[in-house]
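Sharing a chain and its predicted structure for anyone who wants a worked example. Both blocks are below, sequence first, C-alpha coordinates second.
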Amino acid sequence: MLHVPNVFACKSREFPSEYPVNEVLNNESLVVVYIDRTANVDPGNVGYTETFEGTIVKSFKGRLKVGQKVVAGKFPEQARAACPLRVYEGEAYLLVLKHVYNQLKFSRFNLVVNTKSGIFKEYVAQLEGL
Protein backbone atom coordinates (compact mmCIF):
# COMPACT_ATOMS: atom_id res chain seq x y z
CA MET A 1 0.00 0.00 0.00
CA LEU A 2 1.33 3.39 -1.00
CA HIS A 3 1.33 6.07 1.68
CA VAL A 4 1.01 9.66 0.47
CA PRO A 5 1.75 12.27 3.14
CA ASN A 6 -0.46 15.30 3.58
CA VAL A 7 0.81 18.04 1.31
CA PHE A 8 -0.20 21.63 1.72
CA ALA A 9 0.39 23.84 -1.29
CA CYS A 10 -0.46 27.47 -1.07
CA LYS A 11 0.87 30.66 -2.52
CA SER A 12 1.56 33.76 -0.45
CA ARG A 13 0.60 37.05 -1.97
CA GLU A 14 3.50 39.10 -3.28
CA PHE A 15 3.95 42.68 -2.12
CA PRO A 16 3.30 45.15 -4.95
CA SER A 17 5.28 48.40 -5.03
CA GLU A 18 2.14 50.38 -4.10
CA TYR A 19 -0.38 49.30 -1.48
CA PRO A 20 -3.60 48.23 -3.29
CA VAL A 21 -5.88 50.60 -1.37
CA ASN A 22 -8.47 50.34 -4.18
CA GLU A 23 -9.09 46.74 -3.02
CA VAL A 24 -10.34 47.92 0.39
CA LEU A 25 -14.14 47.88 0.27
CA ASN A 26 -16.60 50.23 2.00
CA ASN A 27 -17.41 47.65 4.70
CA GLU A 28 -13.73 47.15 5.55
CA SER A 29 -11.15 48.92 7.68
CA LEU A 30 -7.49 49.28 6.73
CA VAL A 31 -5.51 49.37 9.97
CA VAL A 32 -2.30 48.53 11.77
CA VAL A 33 -3.17 46.25 14.67
CA TYR A 34 -0.93 45.10 17.51
CA ILE A 35 -1.70 41.44 18.28
CA ASP A 36 -2.35 40.86 21.97
CA ARG A 37 -3.56 37.25 21.75
CA THR A 38 -4.10 34.65 19.04
CA ALA A 39 -5.82 31.33 18.64
CA ASN A 40 -3.56 29.58 16.17
CA VAL A 41 -4.46 26.19 14.74
CA ASP A 42 -1.52 23.79 14.33
CA PRO A 43 1.27 26.02 15.62
CA GLY A 44 3.70 24.30 13.23
CA ASN A 45 4.75 25.57 9.82
CA VAL A 46 1.39 24.95 8.14
CA GLY A 47 -0.82 26.49 10.83
CA TYR A 48 -3.09 29.49 10.59
CA THR A 49 -4.78 32.01 12.85
CA GLU A 50 -8.39 31.22 13.74
CA THR A 51 -8.97 34.40 15.79
CA PHE A 52 -6.98 37.22 17.32
CA GLU A 53 -7.40 40.00 19.85
CA GLY A 54 -5.55 43.22 19.28
CA THR A 55 -5.31 46.98 19.59
CA ILE A 56 -5.58 49.40 16.67
CA VAL A 57 -2.39 51.50 16.48
CA LYS A 58 -3.08 53.23 13.12
CA SER A 59 -6.25 53.58 11.08
CA PHE A 60 -6.17 54.56 7.41
CA LYS A 61 -9.68 53.72 6.24
CA GLY A 62 -12.89 52.61 7.90
CA ARG A 63 -14.56 53.04 11.26
CA LEU A 64 -11.97 51.53 13.61
CA LYS A 65 -10.17 54.06 15.83
CA VAL A 66 -6.65 54.18 17.26
CA GLY A 67 -6.60 52.59 20.73
CA GLN A 68 -9.69 50.51 20.06
CA LYS A 69 -9.55 46.87 21.21
CA VAL A 70 -10.71 44.40 18.55
CA VAL A 71 -11.44 40.71 18.22
CA ALA A 72 -11.34 39.29 14.69
CA GLY A 73 -12.00 35.87 13.24
CA LYS A 74 -11.16 34.08 10.04
CA PHE A 75 -13.61 34.72 7.20
CA PRO A 76 -15.15 31.45 5.95
CA GLU A 77 -13.92 31.12 2.37
CA GLN A 78 -12.51 28.54 0.01
CA ALA A 79 -8.73 28.53 -0.01
CA ARG A 80 -8.17 28.47 -3.78
CA ALA A 81 -4.45 27.85 -3.06
CA ALA A 82 -4.03 31.12 -1.13
CA CYS A 83 -2.07 30.73 2.10
CA PRO A 84 -4.06 31.31 5.29
CA LEU A 85 -3.44 34.30 7.52
CA ARG A 86 -0.91 33.74 10.29
CA VAL A 87 -0.22 36.45 12.87
CA TYR A 88 1.81 36.27 16.06
CA GLU A 89 1.33 37.71 19.53
CA GLY A 90 3.47 40.73 20.33
CA GLU A 91 3.75 41.81 16.69
CA ALA A 92 1.85 44.38 14.63
CA TYR A 93 0.45 44.11 11.11
CA LEU A 94 -1.03 46.30 8.41
CA LEU A 95 -4.18 44.47 7.37
CA VAL A 96 -7.80 44.74 6.29
CA LEU A 97 -10.66 43.83 8.62
CA LYS A 98 -14.12 43.23 7.19
CA HIS A 99 -17.20 44.33 9.17
CA VAL A 100 -19.74 41.48 9.07
CA TYR A 101 -22.85 41.67 11.30
CA ASN A 102 -21.11 43.45 14.21
CA GLN A 103 -18.10 41.14 13.92
CA LEU A 104 -14.67 41.67 12.39
CA LYS A 105 -13.31 39.12 9.94
CA PHE A 106 -10.00 38.77 8.10
CA SER A 107 -9.43 37.13 4.74
CA ARG A 108 -6.57 35.05 3.40
CA PHE A 109 -6.86 37.05 0.16
CA ASN A 110 -6.00 40.45 1.66
CA LEU A 111 -2.46 41.72 1.87
CA VAL A 112 -1.01 41.33 5.40
CA VAL A 113 2.21 43.21 6.16
CA ASN A 114 4.22 42.71 9.34
CA THR A 115 5.76 45.92 10.72
CA LYS A 116 9.12 44.12 10.52
CA SER A 117 8.78 43.80 6.74
CA GLY A 118 10.97 46.07 4.63
CA ILE A 119 7.98 47.42 2.70
CA PHE A 120 5.87 48.31 5.76
CA LYS A 121 7.25 51.87 6.15
CA GLU A 122 6.82 52.51 2.43
CA TYR A 123 3.17 51.42 2.54
CA VAL A 124 2.47 53.57 5.61
CA ALA A 125 4.01 56.61 3.89
CA GLN A 126 1.84 55.98 0.82
CA LEU A 127 -1.32 55.58 2.92
CA GLU A 128 -0.65 58.64 5.05
CA GLY A 129 -0.32 60.64 1.82
CA LEU A 130 -3.86 59.79 0.69
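Comments welcome. The helical segments are 120-128.
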